[in-house]
Amino acid sequence: MHAPFKPLLLSVALAMPGVAWAGPVSGDVVKIGILTDMSGVYAGLSGKGSVLAAQMAVADFGGKVLGKPIEIISADHQNKPDIGAAKAREWFDTQGVDMINDLVNSGVGIAVQKIGAEKHRITINNGAGSIALTNKECSAYGVHYAYDTYALAKGTATALVKQGADSWFFLQADYAFGQALQGDAAKIVTSLGGKVTGTVKHPLATTDFSSYLLQAQGSGAKVIGLANAGGDFVNSVKQAKEFGLTQTLVGLLVFDSDVKALGLAAAQGMTFTTAYSWDINSDTRAFGNKFLAKAGSMPTMVHAGVYSSTMHYLNAIKAAGTDTPEAVMKKMRELPINDFFAKGGKLREDGRMVHDMYLVQVKKPSESRSVWDQLKLLATIPGDMAFKPLSASECALIKK
Amino acid sequence: MDISLQAILSQAMLGLNNGAFYALLSLGLAVIFGMLNVVNFAHGAFYMLGAFVALLGYDFLGKWLGDEGVRLSFWAALLVSPLLVGLLGVLIERLMLRRLYQVDHLYGLLLTFGLALILEGLFSNYFNVAGEPYNGKPAVLEGAVNLGFMFFPKYRLFSIVLSLAVCFAVWFLIERTRLGSYLRAGTENPDVTRAFGIDVPLLRTLTYFLGVALAGLAGVVAAPIYSVSPKMGSDLIIIVFAVVVIGGMGSIMGAILTGLALGLLEGVVKVFYPPLANTVIFIVMALVLLWRPAGLFGKEA
Q1: pLDDT digits (tens, 9 = 90+) for B7-58
Q2: Where are the transmembrane segments (chain B) (predicted)?
Q3: Are residues A159 and A273 in the same domain?
């Protein structure tokens, strides 16, 4: 009776560690969820491209971390915070997802970051713009990586006011994101001695901007600031040209895909701020071309941010020797980020990843040599100038 | 409030532009509903298709034919695009829609709604959702003319004239010609019409072709103004349905006049209180339906 009992005891003993002593990687796999817009207005600038960017990061990392496989799953949040939140809960509770990335759309981004804080799981916002993510809504488990409304407005408005464009009229998408962007830009314009002559709000997804543009034209301002994005931005620029508006048009959030949609003839000369563009240096070009070969289009700053942040997350797991969220967040804050996306990038206490931003200008059709040759670099904005300083942060995590 | 006459006139002009466009789109819907009793939810998708035919013809036709210089000009697109979109409509009518005339028209609505989703999904898969620029606007229509109170883009002036001319032509065709009288007879009493030796199924196919081709034409007209995107139809379809409902489902004149009037109303509301502009159409719809459930020009059932 002694002999058969022994292996049984042994197997129980062997099984025990699985329960009592969880190995360095929970569930023996590092699972990353890409929660994004697969079918709506932001699908072009995030969506499938973000899934691809994360997969590229995993492949370049070697497919394994601490000897365990890395898995990517994805879902469509349809730009609805409730759907995004339900998916995040499901992923954390039953699918063993360790980290959620992308999160385009500020409404979804904020909702999912809250769930991450509650469940002690890491969430990385790349697509969402609202600065609330690292201020009122900040979380010890939340990272805001690529850009935010403050940095976008700061870079662009400062550059233009300095050039003498000191009176602004805003065209604003009538929802949280448009308000944040317009608010940040207006503050910066007035703080530099410029003035805001008025604002007109338009509903999200408007097709006809002509009457709003006529109001802007009548305002007499030198600059028309466009606090909208995607299709709204594209249509407002197109129609401004049609009506022969002579003021400077300024897009406060512009993606490479928008410039492509507008065409250089309509977009030429426009100045804006971005976190990434493929043609800035040899590193950004290398990533851009690699992505282009797989996706058929150049990456947007969201795609680039998803790649870079996924890589940083995996490096942090490697350095920490575990995927425990607290230990990984600690390493993510300690390790500097040095890749094509950011040089000397640093993750702050409030969750903001601070890195250089770029002021770019859309080329003239005659300056462009190929279909994606759209932008020229005007200036690099150092990270500590680009983002809202930690001292001004309203984040409750910061001890003052 | 200091609102100048100039501002009101400019907005009214823009309103007229939108109105002509609403009229063109809702006309197709009204024709299809009036003659076939089909609530054509795919109308927005056909409009999108029309714009895409113009875009693809301009940007890609040359590449497909192996000669980069070949382009479908805007003027050619005005003919080719409605024709192609209309032919797709013929296929849909022959293969699917005609099986549903005998049943409740909810089934037609569901079928066309499904078709719209499929078409939109297909295009979203292959094209940037943000849209592509259409560069084929003819040089003659570049620039603006001085109307005294504003500079009005020549292209928009052209689109107003074209839309109104097409609307009038369609109204004339249906209300004043022999073919039109057959069409109307075929709807009101198909059995008697058939007894006179008229091919009613062929008439129905023609009607659907006409309605769908009108949507395709509107797509070409819209392409130089808006970006061509897979979502452009679904963004607009709700307003167009409201126009048709207010005008009276199926009334040709109702669709044309209501389209124009609502565009104007929207434009003028934008001068006084912009946030109301997108809602005003639906407020009017609610009021009209309370007062005249069949719509302004509709026949009481």
Answers
A1: 888 888 889 999 999 999 999 999 998 888 889 999 999 999 999 999 999 9
A2: 20-39, 46-66, 72-93, 105-127, 155-174, 206-226, 238-265, 272-291
A3: yes
CB contacts of B2 in chain A (<8 Å) are none
Interval B65-92: pLDDT, tens:
888 788 899 999 999 999 999 999 999 9
pLDDT at A6: 57
CATH of the domain at A258: 3.40.50.2300
Q: Which residue on chain A is closest to B13 by alpha carbon?
A: A211
How far apart are the CA of B239 and the nearest CA of chain A, in angstroms?
Answer: 12
The Cα B105–Cα A66 span in angstroms is 61
> Which carries the bigger pLDDT value, residue B169 or residue A229?
B169
| Measured distance between the N- and C-terminal CA atoms of chain A, rounded to whole angstroms | 68
Asked if pLDDT for residue B129 goes beyond 50, the answer is yes
Which residues of chain A from 2 to 41 reach within 8 Å of chain B, CB to CB?
39-41
**CB contacts < 8 Å between A and B, how many?**
94
ipTM here: 0.72
Q: Number of folded domains in chain A?
A: 2
Query: Do A237 and A204 lie in a common domain?
Result: yes
**Contact status of A238 with chain B (Cβ, < 8 Å):** yes
Q: Are residues A245 and A363 in the same domain?
A: yes
Backbone CA torsion sign across A20, A24, A30, A33: positive
Q: Are residues A239 and A361 in the same domain?
A: yes
As its CATH architecture, domain B5-291 has Orthogonal Bundle (1.10)
Whether residues A46 and A158 fall in one domain: no
Q: What is the pLDDT of residues A26-67, one digit of tens each?
A: 889 999 999 998 877 788 889 999 999 999 999 999 999 999
Instruction: Looking at the structure, tell me whether residues A223 and A245 fall in a common domain.
Output: yes
Q: How many helices (H) and strands (E) does chain A have?
A: 14, 15
Residues A263, B133: C-beta atoms closer than 8 Å: yes
Query: Is this model's pTM higher than 0.80 or not?
Result: no
B270 neighbourhood in chain A, CB within 8 Å: 211-212
Q: Would A347 be classed as within a structural domain?
A: yes
Cα-based torsion angle of the residue sequence A34, A38, A44, A47 in order, rounded to the nearest 10 degrees: 10
CA distance B272 to chain A (A): 12
Q: Which residues of B110-144 are buried (b: 16+ CB within 10 A; e: fewer)?
A: ebbeebbeebbeebbeebbbbbbbbebbeeeeeeb
Q: Where are the domains of chain B?
A: 5-291
Q: Read off the pLDDT of each residue in A379-395 and give the average, rounded to a whole number.
A: 93
Q: Cβ of A40 and B129 within 8 Å?
A: yes
Q: Quote the domain boundaries for residue A157.
A: 150-277+357-386
Is B184 exposed, middle or buried, given 0-12, 13-18 or 19+ CB atoms closer than 10 A?
A: middle
Residue of A200, A211, A371 to mutate when probing chain B, most B C-beta within 10 A: A211
Q: Within 10 Å of residue B199's Cβ, how many Cβ atoms? A: 13
Both A192 and A261 in one domain: the answer is yes
Residue A2 included in any domain: no
